[in-house]
Design goal:
alpha+beta; Phosphorylase Kinase, domain 1; D-amino Acid Aminotransferase, Chain A, domain 1; 7-stranded antiparallel beta sheet; 31% helix; binds thymidine-5'-phosphate; binds aspartic acid
Length: 238
């Protein structure tokens, strides 16, 4: 298939293009990194390639476990072909260990293991700074139907269990992560990316942070951390 690219949209970490097939988009992963609603800007060398390759491996794994995803195939180091979806404007966050904004919100120290996983929803809106919302807001604002929300929650729990087990095999704790879903011919499917930009990964033995917090908090070793996560996952997924 000829991949005629027509620019559609540029986000903070990716560019989206239409292809000659109206049902398929091309996603190009960038090295650009932002934090705090774009206030902090930088570049993480090779991030585009790493996040594209890691997301591809994880989407394939999730698909093999029955989670429908937008991923079709990786077509170059930093590009993947995906199903054209309409993004549901809800960011779904799953948290297994206290970190980041949850630590501030509930006054527990980072690293506190939660007795139960917490699922949170945020309204995907840069202008509003992605505020946290609940199922009543989702219904009132008609962001998703009850049926769609049920699917989203079922998938999020299942994804958490698959990814927690997978990362544990490579000595990484899946602390928390953010998911986005889209509608494809009316069906809810997993979209966006799964990478050190959108997850918190801690080495189980040392506690070392292997994710975007190294950039957010100026910890150094950002590129090495991203490379490390990919190379560990590549040992168990092909
Ligand atoms: P938080 O603790 O800052 O709320 O972040 C929770 C998780 O969501 C963490 O794994 C990082 C991810 N995340 C994003 O993917 N995009 C964002 O814009 C933010 C703020 C967090
Ligand atoms: N992606 C977010 C932004 O630029 C922030 C983050 O991941 O912390 O604003």
């Amino acid at each position: 298939m000829e991949l005629k690219k027509e620019f559609l949209y540029e986000g903070k970490a990716k560019k989206i293009y239409r292809t000659s097939d109206p049902d398929q988009y091309l996603v190009e992963y960038k090295d650009d990194a932002t934090a705090f609603d774009g206030l902090k800007k930088g570049t993480i060398c090779r991030k585009g390639e790493i996040n594209n390759t890691l997301s591809a491996l994880l989407f394939k794994k999730l698909a093999s476990e029955g989670i429908p995803t937008h991923f079709i195939k990786q077509i170059s180091p930093r590009e993947m072909l995906v199903k054209a979806v309409k993004i549901i404007p809800i960011e779904v966050i799953a948290r297994n260990i206290v970190a980041g904004s949850l630590a501030d919100r509930v006054g527990l120290p980072e690293g506190t293991k939660l007795k139960k996983t917490i699922l949170e929803f945020c309204y995907k809106s840069d202008e509003l700074h992605d505020p946290m919302i609940n199922r009543y807001h989702i219904a009132a604002l008609e962001l998703a139907t009850e049926e769609q929300l049920k699917k989203i929650e079922d998938y999020a729990w299942k994804i958490n269990s698959i990814l927690t087990d997978l990362f544990k095999q490579v000595n990484i704790a899946l602390v928390d992560f953010k998911l986005e879903f889209g509608l494809h011919h009316g069906e809810v499917i997993l979209a966006d990316e799964i990478s050190p930009d959108t997850c918190r990964f801690w080495d189980i033995t040392s506690g070392e942070k292997l994710d975007k917090d190294r950039f957010r908090r100026d910890l150094g070793g950002v590129e090495d951390a991203y490379e490390e996560v990919l190379s560990r996952v590549q040992k168990i997924l092909k």
